[in-house]
Amino acid sequence: MGIGCSVRSSVPSAEFGEDSHDGLRAPSSGASPQVGQRPRLRPHRISATSSSSVAVTLYDLGTGDDPFPPESQQSSQAEETPPIVRRLTLTTVEITSHIQTTEVTVAQPREQPSQGVTTSKQSDSQKASQDATGQNPTSQPQSQDAPAGVKQPAVAPPTQPRPPKPPPALPDLRDFSENERKLLCGRVDADVNLRPKLIRVYVVSCAEDSIQERAVLRERVSPALKHHCGMLGYQFELVDMYEGVSDREVNDPEFLQAALREMDMCMETSIGPQLMILFGQKYGKLMCPTSIPPETFDKLLAAMDSREDKETLCTYYHLDNNSAPPTYKLQPIRCEEGKLKSSDWLTVQDQLLRILEERLDEESNLLKSALDHQLCRAFSHPRLQAGQVTWFTRRLLELEAHLADPLAPHFLDILPGGAVNTAAQQRLEGLVERTTSQLSEATCMANNIPWEGGGIDPQANPAHQEYLDCLQTRCQADLMAMVDRAVTEAQGEEQDHKPRFGKTLSLELQHQADFCRTTSPTFHGQDKLLNAIGSHLRAENTLPLVIHGADGCGKSALVAKIVELVPEWQTEQTVCVYRAVRPGTSHSSEEQLLWGLCEQLRLLYGPSTRKIQMEIDSLVQDFQYFLSRATSDRPLLLLLEGQLQGGEGGTSLVWLPTSLPPNVSMVLIVKTTDTETAPFLKSLPPDCFMEMSTLPPDECMAIADQLLKNNQRTLSPNQRDTFQAAIEKCPLPLYASIAAQLCTAWKSDDVDSSLPQDVVGLVNSMLDRLEAKHGAELVSAVARYVTVARHGLTESALFGLLLQNSEVLRLNKGTELHGVPQSTVLRLLRDLTPLLSIRVQESLVLRTWRSHSIADIIVRRYMGTKDDVRTAHVHMKEFCSRMVATEQEAGLHTHWGLVELPYHTFQTEGHHRAIAEYFLKFDWLQKALVAGNAIQIVSDVNMAARANPDNGDLCLLSALLQESAAALSYDGRQFCVHVVERLVDVMKSAAKDRFPAMCNMFKSASSSANRQFTTSKVFLKQVAPPGSSSEKSRKRIASEKAEGEVGNSVEPEGETDCDFLTGLFVVKDDPDHVISVSVETGEIRLWDVHMQTPVQVILGVDQPRQVCCINARHIVVLCNRQLQVYDLEAGKLETTLKGIMNATMPYFGIHDSDHVVALSRNRMYVNVINVTSGDVVSTFKAGEDRFLNSLLISSNGETVVCGDETQKPSPLLVWDLINRKLVHDLRIMGHEFNARLSAITNNGKYVASSCKELIDPDVCLVIVYDLKTGQLFKKLKPGTPVVSLALSEESMSAVLGCENGLVQVWDLQTGACRHVLDGHTHPVNTLQLADEGRRCLTFDPSHHDLSIRVWDIVEGQCLAVLTPDQPINCCQILADGERVVIGLQGRHDIITLELLSSTSSNQLE
């Protein structure tokens, strides 16, 4: 049997258009139509066969030929076959679902009368329905009593529901960059930019002679730099390893190695300045080398005559064969009773130095002071940047004349006999000379100050005080300048590599890609398991796969390996969505986990405009909907790993489907114990489970060998046997990696080399050693703080916490220190590295425990009682409270503290105190949301509301935040607007008395200076009071929507997804009205912007798209491809201008009150048309066979600028409309203008155009010309492709919308970039400048970024941002810059937003 059908599509397609240079119709050559344009289609016919699925062939009815003839006819028709139109394979259901937008005639076989195939009467009905709804504006709906001969539609009863809508197409991932696609699709080779916003400056100096200078840096310079960096969104740390350190530690070689490691960290992590070098007159004491090469050591022994010297050297230097390569290592200096006293230690060091000095030549470079060691390490570091180093010299005058002064040895190298150590002075001079050559003497601050008996004493000597003040001023200025340069450069690099989707999702995906790339190489063995997983995924099972194993068996590494192998196991198009639930991650609740999943799936499977609500039931519905959207062309693998017991830090996963939709696979990797407790896992059949066994000992040994190799270490045969024996008892990768880290400290001659038998014993053994080294009080305090911190701790936060811990500060004798030495804490953190996970979150470097199992060990060891836990939480709460109260709002630590505060309040004082002090406090809530933690805050409020269902205020707040979560996660500054707009109905109702706290919040938001917009019309969805009938109705509608998600979705009353308003335009010389057009309904409306109501409606307009105002009464409208003049006051068509516009470039503008300027259809002419007669009265022509591709007309109507695409290099042609002549032919050799991306000032004085160099097309330029002289005025280099452009002579600014989502503001007077405006997550193709020249509206019409922003381009500030519930179809900033009018998808009306900004738009600097 067969089915035959013919189709005439009423839906426009961008694949077909009409335009040619000679005016003939032909398929467009890839040119994109204008926004809203519907190219005319040539008719085609469809034929199909089969009952369940059809092979659809599109015929060109112009010739009647099949573009896909049978193979037997292909040879004879090869030359005559028209271009391929389209070939589809559809099911009959899919054909039926498209009937709404397609006229279909079907010949139904008689032997199958029951087949549900649409008849010709039905197709007529569909067509009539389309005409009635405006889908075909040129047609009129037919009435039932139409004249004879008119086709009557056989319509169904009016009450019959509409056919289901076809599902929206999958998003085109080509809208994203290649790297963004890799991140979204879960590819391990995606580039990530997780560098923390950290500026870390290491102080290089001699410990003894720089005490006063280092105090100035710590106490005066560092606070100022912290504030300055905080305002820029960066964190500043000054590393002074000598603070609070005794002389013995300063001269300890182990301390020097720790200092060098910290300097390396500063060089590698600091975005801005890296080093601050302080030179005095002291070189410093020589240090015993920590290692001596074997060949050098043998020469030393051979050159010694003294047996005592040989014994001394061999006593303290032992050959360590565990080092790669082997070397002689300096041994810890001990005696039988323990460590030597400080005096004994110095005596032994002096003996060793004497021996080495006598026999080592300078070329060996082994004997150096700590200052020399640090500078040599710095100057050889590959990350050293000379422009990021500041240095100072200080000379005490007449110091050599006071060598007998007891304090003189602190500032000068003096021999035991009292003479100056000339050798040390020569070494110091060499260091200064090397520093001068490496850096620059011009960057050095040289200071000469008089000597005083007390050394440097600012209290007694004004010159010394002046010196320290000058040091502070110069150092502070130099560092701030370095910071500003570095931040500007870092922001540019960050934007070039920053994914163009939401900040939260962007960080989440980058963390996952980084984790998988770094962890996958650590995976060993388990080939059998990998093969089984691959077979399961290739088989397209409908059941999830659950892989379970013990703690430490390598589950995380397995996840990374699976992500790496997914394209090999399935296809390159497979999307891998991976999430890990571990301590300190951003998934502290199921809502957060689901939110991140839904956000990623929304971008992958669409529609991108779908609003995601932060409510668990709604999120589950969205999640299931997105899963159903997976296709064979874009299959989905969902991969979840981590803690599944629920609660804080875990999830129960009860919302996961037990039976998967088509094209979806799912793998869960969990602990074995979770399979017995997690409800979801218990509901799965046994066939779903695979066990991850422990590794063979040789595989564990391979893990250890790799770690030892990375640390340039190995093991002796006996030690290796010991290690292998321990591995056989505990063959876990976690055990192997921690044990290998401990073994890096083993030396080849160590006798006591043993390992505990399990991970618990291993971690406890490690902690025992750390307590012996650093003190039990310090280790326990650090462990507790890391454990109770919700998302991890930074170094700075840890220092602050330790400062308020009296147990740590108290010495054995009960005295108090002013603080814990920075070096002590840093050394402890480095020693804890094997147990810690270090990651970047919200631009901070946070430390958490490596795994749940390690965290459990810490809890059992240090937090055995409730008092221990509560004390740690109290300390955290007090520290965070003080931080939030004292630091600037821009400080990164303030953002961290705002999230931590309610959590620790809840842990110490319960829900009610946390709710009252934070969640229901407007000031705290606004500050926390602005800090960028919206999803975490919303999740916390939701959890608190579920735990306190009787708290009406909290439940109402929870409902509000759920609705606004998407907007607040985009930009928390919208909080005030959303509070005011969503609570209007509640505040007007009698029920408001039930919500006193929310009433206060509403009042605060209404009067807040942070409320950016105000409007008289409610345009955001109202929040229903908890328990009301409105809330129950909302839940019912949500449930119905979930049930009918594919097909008949439930739409809010009075709203549809049609584009009723497709364009908004200002009225010339009338600030109180705007004009809207609708291509869908064929309407032009004149609106009162104050009342937000139409005052004139013009119907029956043929696809109105663009409007230009002749005056306040008359407008010119682009209708389809004709220009028509309308009288707004009379509401009627006055004139249709002669000629047809070009299909893809319908450019026109106003010359004066009587004339319109338009680009001709063939693009060879610029026509001047009389608006009264409609005749062309004048024509400009570029030349023979020269085609124009743009048209700019100044607002005063005196100048027109066109781009010429024919000539090379392409010029800009400038005509004087008053005198009707060409005045400039602007071109630059070796450059090509993109004239379709250009702008002109209102008075026609300047024109700007995007431009590229022919020899290097990657170089993006914007050229600005002075049209009065025709001279090149400015050449701007944005450094990235430009997608939109606007000029303002009023503020002398060029505004550039860049491909990376940034908006750049350039000063036309200086040619410098004035501001870089960051906020949008996608390129903004729409820039609108208010007539006053200061305010700019930015908008992304592609709806990847659903928000609009208003900027002050003079100050570089974002004045307002708005993310409505529905996508914005069109927007317009009014001439005064004080109001913005928007049209939302599915709404017939306009919304006028008044800006509430303190910045005056009438004062240009």
TrEMBL record:
Classification of source organism: Eukaryota, Metazoa, Chordata, Cephalochordata, Leptocardii
Stretches with biased composition (Pro residues): 155-170
Domain NWD1/2-like winged helix-turn-helix: 758-869
Region (Disordered), start-end ranges: 1-85, 101-174, 1024-1052
A Pfam family this chain is assigned to: WHD_NWD1
InterPro entries given in the database record: NACHT-WD_repeat, NWD1/2-like_WH, P-loop_NTPase, Quinoprotein_ADH-like_sf, WD40/YVTN_repeat-like_dom_sf, WD40_rpt
SUPFAM superfamilies: P-loop containing nucleoside triphosphate hydrolases, Quinoprotein alcohol dehydrogenase-like
Protein name: NACHT domain- and WD repeat-containing protein 1-like
Biased segments, Polar residues type: 101-117, 134-145
Source taxon at top rank: Eukaryota
Protein keywords: Repeat, WD repeat
Composition bias, Low complexity: 47-57, 118-133
